[in-house]
Amino acid sequence: MSMSEPEAGLRGRLVDVGVELVAQEGAQALTLREIARRAGVSHGAPRRYFPTHLELLSAIARRGFAELGERARSAIADGTASPRAQLTALGRVYLEFALANAGMYELMFRHDLLESGHLGLRDTSLPLFGVLVDLVGRARPDVDARLVAGALWANLHGVAQLWRWGSLQLATGAGDFAPLLRSALDAHLGPEAAR
Q1: Which of 189, 188, 185, 169 has the alpha carbon at shortest distance from 177?
Q2: pTM for this model (two decimals)
Q3: Could you tell me which residues come within 8 angstroms of residue 182 by beta carbon, excluding any fewer than 6 positions away?
Q4: In 3D, which of 98, 27, 19 has the Cα closest to residue 60?
């Protein structure tokens, strides 16, 4: 059963409002009531399109994954750079996205709050991880690429979170995250070969 144009428009508007709200106030502000209020509809209206709060959160997070995916595709361009160079570009995009979109970033990786299977969120998020796994496998064919990619991702996630809190700047004296990104890549891929 497909939605009529006005229904699709309202569904999209509810997600748009949620995207704006998470950007302004963070994931904790994403209540059905507040999204409905800001969209100018009754507090029960979102339930017509999103029977559960988790479904609305998932639709909002899907927008974040789509944006991050687009940035990732642009960063690795035509894929002709070395796997290490592509991983560096991907890591930079990931950290920049995390720091510029704190609320969305937090929501996107809270799979405990999201219905990733039912709404196709996994179809958006897992391919991004697949790109990371592929590049790690090409850079380090001697390792289990999924595990190393998972550890690298966790490392980058930690860098993003601790950078946002100001902890890494205090602890390391670093003025930007580039040296930390290089160190994370060295730790998981081995030191970069001399040029």
Answers
A1: 169
A2: 0.86
A3: 88, 192
A4: 19
The tokens describing 81, both together, are: 């750079």
What number is the average pLDDT over the span 92-112? 91
pLDDT value at position 117?
A: 59
The pLDDT of residue 3: 47
Neighbours of 195 (CB within 10 A): 3
Q: Which two tokens stand for residue 50?
A: 């999103």
- The label of the residue with tokens 């999209």 reads 12
- Given a cut of 70, whether residue 194 has pLDDT beyond it is no
Distance (Å, rounded) from C-alpha 61 to C-alpha 116? Answer: 9
Count CA atoms closer than 13 A to 96's CA, side-chain side: 12
Q: 4-11: long-range contacts (C-beta < 8 A, 24 or more apart)?
A: 7/48, 7/49, 10/39, 10/41, 10/45, 10/49, 11/49, 11/50
Segment 104-115, tens digit of pLDDT: 999 888 877 776
Question: What is the C-alpha separation between 59 and 10, in angstroms, rounded?
Answer: 13
Q: Counting Cβ atoms within 10 Å, is residue 192 exposed (0-12), middle (13-18) or buried (19+)? A: middle
Structure tokens at 20: 């704006």
Helix (H), strand (E) counts: the chain: 10, 0
Residue linked to tokens 């709060």:
53
